[in-house]
Amino acid sequence: MLREIHPGYIMPVGVWNVRESLRALLKTPFETFDSIDNAMNHVSSIFEIPKRGWMETSALLQNAYFQRKISQFN
User: Fold this and answer.
1) How many domains, in total, are found in the chain?
2) Which residues, 6+ apart, have CB-to-CB distance to 22 below 8 Å?
3) Residue 69 in domain
4) How buried is residue 55: exposed, middle or buried, by Cβ count under 10 Å (0-12/13-18/19+)?
């Protein structure tokens, strides 16, 4: 799950807002993708923040894209 927040988001409504947003999201049909790259390309077509912005600020995405796998050390 990704959540897009812009500088204009000035009202910190906290956990309640996130919980209710997730509750509504989990009631909707979900999409599956063959790779994280395909998923990110899809997200880029919906969100305003470009893929590069997500990559620069997300440690989880950086790990998913750039972390070396143990199988690479054969």
Assistant:
1) 1
2) 1
3) yes
4) middle
Range of the domain at 69: 32-73
* Tens digit of each residue's pLDDT (9 = 90 or more) over 6-64: 777 776 667 888 889 889 989 999 899 998 889 989 988 989 888 888 888 888 888 88
What integer pLDDT is reported at residue 8 of this predicted model? 74
pTM value is 0.64
- pLDDT for position 16: 84
Report if residue 39 sits inside a domain.
yes
**62 located within any domain:** yes
DSSP string of 30-54, one letter each residue: ----SSHHHHHHHHHHH-SS-HHHH
Please report whether residue 59 resides in a domain.
yes
- Residue 51, by phi and psi: left (phi above 0), alpha (psi -120 to 50) or beta? alpha
Written as one letter, the residue type at 66 is F
